[in-house]
Specification:
The protein has 87 residues and is an alpha+beta fold. It contains 2 helices and 3 strands. It has a domain of 43 residues. A 3-stranded antiparallel beta sheet has the order 1-2-3. 1% of the residues are buried.
Length: 87
């Protein structure tokens, strides 16, 4: 994998398996005017954890908005029915 990356000077991004057997997002770039390469990696689960929390929050907010909308529609329907039909 590293040999393929070293053949080009462009920034490379990929999902790989690290030495622990854990999927990671990895990025590698050649250091200018040097034979060195800089490799950075972050666990895939670590990146997705923040997204999972945000998704959960968005789902809760949407559910609350639906419940409030249904409640308000019910109230308006009852109020309109009471105005139309005299007692």
């Amino acid at each position: 994998m590293l040999r393929q990356w070293q053949s080009e000077d462009t920034l490379k991004l990929l999902i790989a398996i690290d030495y622990r057997g854990v999927p990671v997002f990895a990025s590698m770039k050649k250091v200018p005017e040097s034979p060195w390469f800089l490799l950075a990696k972050t666990d895939k689960d670590e990146i997705y954890e923040g997204l999972k929390v945000q998704l959960r929050d968005v789902i809760i907010i949407i559910m609350l908005l639906i419940i409030i909308t249904l409640f308000l529609c019910g109230r308006f329907m009852v109020a309109a029915e009471n105005k139309v039909l005299p007692r």
